[in-house]
Amino acid sequence: MDANTFLIQVLNGIQYGLLLFLVASGLTLILGIMGIINLAHGTFYMVGAYLAFSLSQHFGNLWLAMAGGVVIAVVIGLVLEWLLISRLYHRDHLYQVLLTYGLILIFEELRSVVFGDDVHGVAVPEILRVSIPLTETLSYPVYRLWMSAVCLVLAVGMYFLIQKTRLGMIIRAGAANREMVQSLGININLLYRLVFALGVALAAFAGMIAAPVASVFPGMGNQVLIVCFVVVVIGGIGSVKGAMLAAILIGLVDTFGKVISLEIGGVQLLPQLSGMMIYVLMAGVLLARPEGLFGKRA
Amino acid sequence: MGKLRPGTIILVVCLLALAVLPWFAEKYYVQLFTKMMIMAIFAMSLDLLVGFTGLVSLGHAAFFGVAGYVLAFAAPEYEAANLWVSLPLAMACSGLLALVIGVLVLRTSGIYFIMVTLAFAQMVFFLFHDTEFGGGADGIYVYAKPVAAIAGWEPFTLENHTHFYFVVLALLVLVYTGLRILLDSLFGRVIVGIRVNEHRMRSLGYRTFRYKLACFVLAGVLAGMAGYFAAAQFGFVNPETLGWHQSGSVLMMVILGGMGTLTGAVVGAFSMILLELGLQGLPAIGGMDLSKHWQLLMGGFIVCAVLLLPHGLLGLGRTASRLRRKPAEARDG
Amino acid sequence: MSKNQAFHRRGFLKTAIAAAAVAGVVSLPSFAYAQSKIKVGLMLPYTGTYAQLGVAITNGFKMAMSESGGKFGGHELEYFTVDDESSPPKATDNANALVTRDKVDVLVGTVHSGVVMGMVKVARDSGTPLIIPNAGAGAATGSQCAPNIFRTSFTNWQPAYPMGKVLADRGIKKAVTLTWKYGAGIEAIEGFKEGFKKAGGTVVKELFLPFPSVEFQPLLTEIASIKPDAVFVFFAGGGGVKLMKDWQAAGLKGKIGLYGSGFLTDGVLDATGSAADGIETTLHYGDGIETPKNKTFRLNYAKTYKLQPDVYAVQGYDAGLLLVAGLKAVKGDMSKKKEFLSAMEKAKIDSPRGAWTMSKAHNPVQDIYLRKVVNGENKVTGVAQKALADPARGCKM
User: Fold this and answer.
1) Predicted TM-score (pTM) above 0.95
2) Which ipTM value was assigned to this complex?
3) Which of B167, C153, C251, C375 is most exposed, with the fewest beta carbons within 10 Å of its own?
4) Chains with ≥3 Cβ pairs under 8 A against B?
5) Would the CB atoms of B302 and A233 count as touching at under 8 Å?
């Protein structure tokens, strides 16, 4: 691999990692702040992609579709929290796992009823439909760079919101001690509802901006979900910083796992077993730091 | 234990019903109940973790599936494996895998534990899915059911579906009784103590990690037993057998029946499989083919079960009487 | 406490009764009908990723049956349908239910290769005739072939093999392959490699992606640095769409030729848009086959189902035609199994894709078309190879 290709591969890895971060950040927020494990998180990613598809058909414009989609996602989040999730705060994680597992089945079938089982494409917006030539054969689509930029902006925004604002302070306090914050006269129920809606919106938004490059297809949420879990485990629950680092690490490991050849004792390990690479990384991190890179010690 | 409780009577009646079933039921139903009993063993093994030790594993299918693969490898084409060799081998392999994974995952707890078990099971999934040795994504056959011969003597033949049924029934009773005895022993009290308050158990001088690991391995071994017989019955193993959907549905069985009671796992396994059959067999009503969207109903059922049946089917009475007494409390609980 | 236990028991009894009732409902079909009907078990995906393929196959199949009159020697048809969910762990179990509970005379299914392997297992054990209307796992008509197992679609090897010769004949000598790491993809790549090597080409690198990941970017970068003359891929559905779009966005389109098994561009052209333009693939069906048979088929299908037929509908239709051939030979009397099977073996299927016959291993001997994406259609531009039979390696029949 020459230096040029190597650098492009690093760029690929970081770009994939940033998108992963965007999906995983909602998961880690809901987990860290509310203590809710949400298996349906990947499903919201799928919902976002389908919203981007159908709304952009309706409006004829991806930007409007995204705006509308985020609003719908927030509403879905608020309703779900009010109707179902709010009943789970005092219950074991087990029930959260099951309820959200049930939600996956429901949303997948609803998707089938409403949108059908077709594969759909979403057009890249006109202004971003260009590529920057990198080598004589390869160029880099500007849309991907734009995606990375959006992910970075959101990451910084989230960090600022949680670490520097009053709202963030209350959220952090609420995560540490729900009852105490409540006794201070803050409506913690409303706060949780908003955090959950934010998480859903983040996942859906990730689905929306990924839709033009990823296409829209049934079951697309499930493959994202498990990778997101790995991101959260490596980064540490509730840590935005950790999720960022872990996502980029995974992006790089996944990228190079696919293109590097590795042979030990005559057995071809890579790229044959590239699917396992991120789990090996996770096992390694767990051995060294069971609470993840930036997790609080339990 | 000594007193005859109503629960015990029902248990005995159900057991008798299961014991005479093959004389009344067609082959399909005998096989269906065999499958339900296999899943019941699988669910009980998970209940040991979830219900008693408080370890919510979302990767339990890995041990179930691996044992199936061991049987497939032990039985090359046109050559049946010996039950007495391959069954212990399969269970040992599942146990070994559970030991390796257990050492890693038990370093975590709570939400971490759920996610990490899921991720490790996924790793095992990819190991079988992405390599050729187990038939890759298409899976691998178990060509012949294991032979139960000891030095030329064959007490039963698994090729006969009634024999197979009784072997599984015997194992179900054996596993149930064995776990009951174990849970009534000091060991059982320690692991329940760990679930309630691990700190206290540790300060009492128990090395809780070892207890948890022992449970994890035992659950893996029993899941392996179930997986072995599932592979033998269906004659086919596929990476999806160890996938996370399988782990999710067995967890649902445990909860549906009522966790922390071995009987609950059995009831859950039976009712879940019957429910699935029932939903898929739904007729079309008013132009809407319900059976086509049966997963929607299944999802709705799971959500309702979580919200309305906090103690599972076996705890139905408890839930109902509590609702009657203190509606408010039950809603919050 | 005693009150609690009373509830306890009643709850349990209620469950038991409900369970028994469910079991009763489920068991009804096996008692309610007399023997004289021909029972057809359709085991196809009706939920999940492949739901649409399951519906297309069912539509095609039922259309063929109703065109034939739906009655054979006084025996009517009766359908038993199972949603296989594309879930391999449930495959043998579902197929077994159709065979032992519903006592079907013939099994039809399915789409997913892993699930079909489970069905093959049941068909081999029970001797029930099995017609496979899609899944291309080579083993079903290869090492696992059997007198009662038939396929009306393709093997994964079959549409890929001719592309090797087509490319080599154009002077392309250096190719890279790319697929998901799963059975169908690996078999298709093997087919292409075999054809390509035989015609003088070399595959310089085989690239894989873990299924069902769609993160192509690293592999496209790798391809750009290798600069092969052509890339042959096996993808379908959403993965295929994403590949073609990424390919265009990465600027590889027009610089390196992208070729594939026809599934790459089937049923996804609307979703792919301009990224698919000009891509050439090989398959046993395509748009604009100007035969009277194909025209009437397309017209009737569109009229009946208000949908345009695709290759899956054709395969389902042919599965129906094959069954009709067998049933006509025995006048609907399924006890004459030997005659039934031999009639299916000898049948000449007048398919919309062009007439085809069964190979010795019971897979179609069929023309493989070369197609090119033009204006959102898979236009047939020629025949890549006439009357191609799968080598059926490992079949001892």
Assistant:
1) no
2) 0.86
3) C375
4) A, C
5) no
